[in-house]
């Protein structure tokens, strides 16, 4: 095992820790790690990210459920339109994107470059959500109609399908604002949505990509250890402060990705 692989597996542990502590952000670390450190193509990296984040989130869902922090009814309501959008995105939309999107003079904007830049833009939006101070208890008189949840699920599902993210960093604020769920329960509930979305999205990838199963299963197993540790540590660490710090880190990472892709 060389140094790069060791660093990659340490990164897998950190991915799990982040998921366990703040209920999202796993893919924000996984995709850049696989692309820039381990040298995977962005399309393959986003596929692997779906499997890693989905499997790790399944374990996290169980851990949060034992503490009564998962609202399965609301989670499944968001999941249905989302996983349909994620599957269709991974099965048809991503494979259908041309290898060269457009050219500016002699500079070609490729499919991989486009996915990574789009990923960075979503990261910037996510970082704002993490950094911004938000009241935990929003005074909403009622939950929104399901058709709005359905439309929101389709939109978030399509976005997460393209970038290979579980979408926890998008679903947590959505559950707080739209479903009127307290922050701690929103984090737990987001994990069930991330689990379903990610694994069904990955099924779409299996049909179009060759999967390096040995590496993927080792990487995922280490991430699962990380999420178990993260859920345990969440009892002792302020999630609010951690989330804000991670938000700044995500902003720096997004800036780096844009620089790396356009230089």
Automatic annotation (TrEMBL):
Coiled-coil regions, chain positions: none
The protein's name in its UniProt record: Probable membrane transporter protein
Membrane topology classification: Multi-pass membrane protein
GO cellular component: plasma membrane
Keywords, alphabetical: Cell membrane, Membrane, Transmembrane, Transmembrane helix
Pfam families linked: TauE
InterPro entries noted in UniProt: TM_pro_TauE-like (IPR002781), TSUP/Inactive_protease-like (IPR051598)
Family: Belongs to the 4-toluene sulfonate uptake permease (TSUP) (TC 2.A.102) family.
UniProt source species: Algibacter marinivivus
Main location (coarse class): membrane
Annotated TM spans: 12-37, 43-62, 74-93, 113-131, 151-181, 187-206, 213-233
Localisation per UniProt entry: Cell membrane; Membrane
Domain of life: Bacteria
Lineage: Bacteria, Pseudomonadati, Bacteroidota, Flavobacteriia, Flavobacteriales
